[in-house]
Amino acid sequence: MVKSVAFVLLSAVLALLGCQSTGMDGVDFTRARFFLESGSNAGFSAALTLPVSRIQIPVEGQAIVSEYDYLSVDVVDVDLGRCLAFTLKPAAAREFYQISVGNQGKRLVLVINGEPLGVRKITGPIADGRIYVFLEVKDDRLMELARKLKDTNFEIQKKLKR
């Protein structure tokens, strides 16, 4: 019963995300959004399930970082392996810093085109405006997603400068 309710809620959240008009519809964009883990199991909007580990994370209904909030995304190699690094715009970085201060211990779920693909635990304040996240995908798909996210980001920045 709980799984079916969670599935219905997740479907509703993802449908609402798809209904948001950006003025850039009709083009094949790759949209990345970060959702914050809900503080209570009773008050969450949806439970997102990662594709490989099958971990379920209850999340708030509103994305805290969207495709409009970052300047760049890169594939980087860190001690634990290869991941994506999102560099936020200055205003988004300030807001995200405040969110990270107040939500230490919670997880961020990266959703790309409606599919939860990665998670990152907030272990402390994130003051540098960079979000590193490991995805549950193979390296070749990681590189392809990074390229598509860069292309989308370029188109968004171009459109916003008009």
Would you mind describing this structure in some detail?
The chain is of the alpha+beta class. The protein has a single domain (2-19, 28-160), classed as Gyrase A, domain 2 (2-Layer Sandwich). The protein has helices spanning 2-19, 90-102, 139-160; strands at residues 32-36, 46-49, 56-59, 70-78, 81-88, 107-112, 115-121, 130-135. The relative contact order is 0.19.
Topology:
Elements: H1 2-19, E1 32-36, E2 46-49, E3 56-59, E4 70-78, E5 81-88, H2 90-102, E6 107-112, E7 115-121, E8 130-135, H3 139-160
> What's the main sheet like?
6 strands, antiparallel
The CATH topology corresponds to: Gyrase A, domain 2
Task: Name the average pLDDT.
Answer: 85
Number of strands: 8
The portion of residues forming beta strands comes to 25-35%
The helix/strand class is alpha+beta
Number of domains: 1
Low-confidence stretches: 4-10, 12-17
Number of helices: 3
SSE sequence, one letter per element: HEEEEEHEEEH
CATH architecture group name: 2-Layer Sandwich
Give the N-to-C terminal Cα separation: 49 Å
Radius of gyration from CA coordinates: 15 Å
Shape: globular
**What top-tier CATH class fits best?**
Alpha Beta
Measured as a percent range, the helix fraction is 25-40%
Entry keywords:
single chain, 162 residues, alpha+beta, Gyrase A, domain 2, 6-stranded antiparallel beta sheet, 8 strands
